[in-house]
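Catalogue entry: protein
Contents: sequence, fold tokens
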Amino acid sequence: MASGLIALSACGSGDDSDGSAKSPVPTSSAPAPETSSASAGTQKQTNEAVLQAYEDFWAEQVKAYAKGDTAGTSFAQYAAGEALSSTQDDLKDLHNKGIVTTGAPSHDTTVVSLEPGRKVPSAKLTDCLDSTDWRFIYRKSGKPVEMPEGRLIRYVTRIDAEKWGKQWKIVDVTPEQRAC
């Protein structure tokens, strides 16, 4: 899925570039169905932990894209598998083209399912990623990268997360070619 995040960067900027950096918007989630008050509390904590890991994943990813490298970020603490390797591949490609980012996307994230009882606990999330305020620029000139006409600026993204030890990690991020 190396092309997944590359596709994300290809459609990841708004047309108007004011050069201002913005922080990612906190994620939100509709609670999953609850079966008892004890399990409801545990499920709510798990939802919050997964959403926090996704928010941290994006905060670190934004730092990496702004400088063109994951070095010096905590991105690997929150990413693994395809999510990690795709981002690293995308950053190499952008670095070779002299491209970095300013600003940050915002998110409206929902936990779709949780499987905390598995050998490796897992979760599936859906995000309406809004890349309006995330701009791709040429590092040397600061000029905006020309983006394709008709690109999606707000689109659905599917996310897979797994709990490795005590830390939730984002293992796959799949942008869909549909608006949200």
Remarks:
- The first helix runs from residue 2 to 10.
- The helical segments are 2-10, 37-67, 75-78, 81-97.
- Strands lie at 99-103, 109-115, 122-130, 134-138, 154-164, 167-179.
- The two ends are 22 Å apart (CA to CA).
